[in-house]
Amino acid sequence: MSRGKLVRWGVPMAAVAVIGAAIGAGPVIAAVSGDPVLPERSAQQLLAEAAAAVQKDGLPPMSGTVLETASLGLPALPQTASAGSPIALLSGSHEAKVWYGSRDQFRLAVPGPMNETNVIVNGDQTWVWDSQSNTATRVKLAPGAEKTHTAPPTGPSMTPQQAAEQLLSKVGEHSVVSVTSNTQVAGRPAYELVLAPKEAGSLVQDVRLALDGETYVPLRVQVYAKGSAEPAFEVGFTQVTFSAPAPENFAFTPPAGAKVEEKTLGISKDEEKRDFAEGEVKTVGAGWTTVAVLPTPKTPAAPTQGQSEGQGQEAAAALDTVLRSATPVSGAWGSGKLIKTKLVSALFTDDGRLLVGAVTPEELTKAAGAK
Q: What does UniProt give as the signal peptide span (predicted)?
């Protein structure tokens, strides 16, 4: 991903590193009995059946309530009143309502203390409604940008489907995998796929992915840090219904008196080429110990494309807070500032690089010296 894309959506680097870790699968068969009882499956069987179910029918129509909880060990971040703010999602618990009718019908509602943010996709119409600012934003694709059938990003993965897609797309040989068949999520029997890194340099203890025993829909994703009894990051359904949502859930008309805006989502192919020319993201290492190396992000003087003024200010304030907690470090590779959380380490070097990964500080400094 180019630096421009990261800045545009204010994607938290911690979420990028946690969810972007490379993982793998093996043929470990579960032998755990209990209630509820599902037919035993090996990891290979479970992944194959889940992929086949999605490939054949896609996700079934559904609706439910999702709870996202993050306890990454970050310093206290600036308070924000924005529902669904990427910065807010980096700590605490946050609830969202999800409706899914088809690939072109999706709605995500993130309530706040005194407001609510909605993302509504209905055919070729995409709206973002922010009740706090009384603003309805119609989202369009940039000229020449490739169309996708997903909602625009709102920060860390807010549905289990989004998180699971990223996890399962990187199956390789870097994990020890096991499966249990006696898990319950949102009152439904589920398989739990447990992926543990083989590499000692990873901060991740394991990732646990719960798949519905009937539909294979991802119901919950949990990421555990080494030495922790509770997940450092979790997103999962607390209630789910597999039936078609009413059509009115996807209908949206800006309320009378609302401010109506229009923004462009994505970048054109020419802009993407320019972004990479300015500074490509490189990677060092493999599997769970992969380290991303990119130019140190600069705080924009004005909101970038796809980013509101409030989001830009929140991101700048959060970055400033995190940097104040950094530890000065140096070595044969040079000098810089180190930040370590339960799941993510980041190194800001004085020569203008940012190295980040779900790895120990030793892995980061090793990557910093790599040619």
A: none
Residue 119 vs residues 89, 105, 150, 278, 314: alpha-carbon distances, Å? 16, 11, 11, 32, 20
Residue range 47-72: mean pLDDT, rounded: 86
Angstrom distances, CA of residue 50 to CA of 58, 62, 191, 215, 228 = 10, 17, 11, 8, 29
Distance from C-alpha of 179 to C-alpha of 192, rounded to nearest angstrom: 6
Residue among 257, 31, 252, 26 at smallest CA distance from 135: 257
Going across the sheet that includes 233-241, the strands are 175-185, 188-197, 204-212, 218-225, 233-241, 62-71, 91-102, 105-111, 116-122, 125-130, 135-141, 259-265
Contact residues for 95 (Cβ-Cβ < 8 A; gap 6+): 65, 66, 67, 68, 110, 111, 238
What tens digit of pLDDT does each residue of 214-234 get?
999 999 999 999 999 999 999
Burial zone of 371 (CB within 10 Å; 0-12 exposed, 13-18 middle, 19+ buried)? exposed
Burial (CB count within 10 angstroms: exposed 0-12, middle 13-18, buried 19+), residue 97: middle
Task: List the one residue out of 13, 20, 79 whose CA is nearest residue 290.
Answer: 20
Tell me which range, 102-116, 230-244, 301-315, is most confidently predicted by mean pLDDT. Answer: 230-244
Tens digits of per-residue pLDDT, 162-219?
Answer: 556 655 556 667 888 889 888 999 999 999 999 999 999 999 999 999 999 999 999 9
Contacts of 94 (CB under 8 A, 6+ apart): 67, 68, 69, 84, 88, 110
Q: What pLDDT is attached to residue 34?
A: 42
Angle value at C-alpha 109, between 108 and 113, nearest 5 degrees: 155
CB 63 within 8 A of CB 245: yes
Instruction: Please list the residues that pair with 105 across neighbouring strands.
Output: 102, 122
Annotate 325-345 with b (16+ C-beta within 10 A) or e (fewer). ebeebeeebeebbbbbbbbbb
Of 24 and 36, the one with more pLDDT: 36
